[in-house]
Design goal:
Elements: H1 2-15, E1 35-40, H2 44-60, E2 66-71, H3 73-85, E3 93-97, H4 98-104, H5 115-124, H6 127-130, E4 134-135, E5 138-139, E6 142-143, E7 152-156, H7 157-163, H8 171-181, E8 183-185, E9 188-191, H9 201-212, H10 229-242, H11 252-255, H12 262-267, E10 273-275, H13 281-286, E11 296-300, E12 310-312, E13 316-320, H14 326-339, H15 342-352, H16 359-362, H17 365-370, E14 384-386, H18 392-407, H19 413-428
Parallel strand pairs: 1-2, 1-3, 12-14
Antiparallel strand pairs: 3-13, 4-5, 6-13, 7-10, 7-11, 8-9
Helix pairs in contact: 2-15, 9-10, 18-19
Amino acid sequence: MKKRILLIALCVIFTLGMTVSMTACGGGGSDESAITFWTHNDEPTWNESYQNVVDSYMEEHPDVTINIESFPYDEYESKVQTALMSDEGGADIYELWGGWAVDFAPAGVLEPVPDELQDEVIEESYPNTYGSLMSDDVLYGIPLEFNIECGGLIVNNNVMKEAGVEVPTTWDELKAAAEKGTVKDGDKVKVKGFDFVNWDGVMYLWTSMILSQGDNYLNDDGTINVTSDAAKKAWEELASMASGDNAVTNLSGLDDGSDIEGYQELYTNEAMMVPRGPWCLNEGIQEFGLEYGKDYSYVAMPFYGPEKKFAAETGWSLAVASGLSEEKDAIAKDFMAYFYQDEVLGQHDIACGLIPAKKSVAQDPEFVKGFPYAEPLVGILDGVQYIGPFNTDIFKEKVNEAFSAYCKGGQSTDECLAGLEKTLNKALFK
């Protein structure tokens, strides 16, 4: 507890412009050889896991010091971008979100991963987990997770029981259950039967619905194609569930500016089913006092079409800054290789509620035993498609804006998706 309070205090001082670092326990390296490791600090379990990995590494390398500096997520992206792109000094090792790395990898601000480790990552990891870390066939970081937001469904067991519905196994069953579980007061939705409307949810569900029909939202050259019959059909299906007389959710997850997400409303009996990744499941226990398996469960979500396919972006990763001294560069790269070991990576992902990037770890029965939330997901991971080499925040933003406007009326499907396709290609491929 004292260590966590100290970390927060030091981060506040740092953000005010003073140079401060937090040295992990142990380590005997000089100041000149000490490694600085930047992370975001919004997830306490992640902070603890990073500290454990650093401590374990330094126990094996007593001449090495690794200092962790953590920052709030809301400011972390801009800090990382300023440090890397403006060459104003920052960390030696960065925890990077994959969607950012797509901009950093080709810019010469990150060190290539050593050849042997690169070969290992490409051979042993799912393609989406490192896609944004690649540029011109060179890898500029290692993936820590399989970032998945589609394929798993959180269900409120009590709301389902009250509605008299079972866990759906087909898309038609999901729609029927959602309609039966939705509670309205006039036009106001009091209990959402199926709430997919949030920053990630609309885009991930829509692209999965396109892929599962055997089509694609990407052209052969990687540009965006969302005017296909499959895209239109999926778009209209989702809009019918978020607006109109038979709506099973509403647009509040995009429009009301609230920090409350659908899965949190599920934990307070205001939603019955929410598609989401496994990272938020522990919150039901820790923050809402619920019992997993009794009050809520995590199950396989039915696919829209006959194929179990979906898109996923590169999630949290580690990368080494370019321009380090020879000594620091060697230590930083060795730490990356250490982190990528099966046992280390598996323990970190269990602690953080993540699906591992490495196939051998994700498919290990011992991992599923240690992290049972993964059970509905491990069987579909081979159906993943890397989302594409573009900034995913922009992709989501434009899709969400178009979806919200479409649900409020005034545009035909053809008009809306033609405009969205043009907007996306212009914004993503300048």
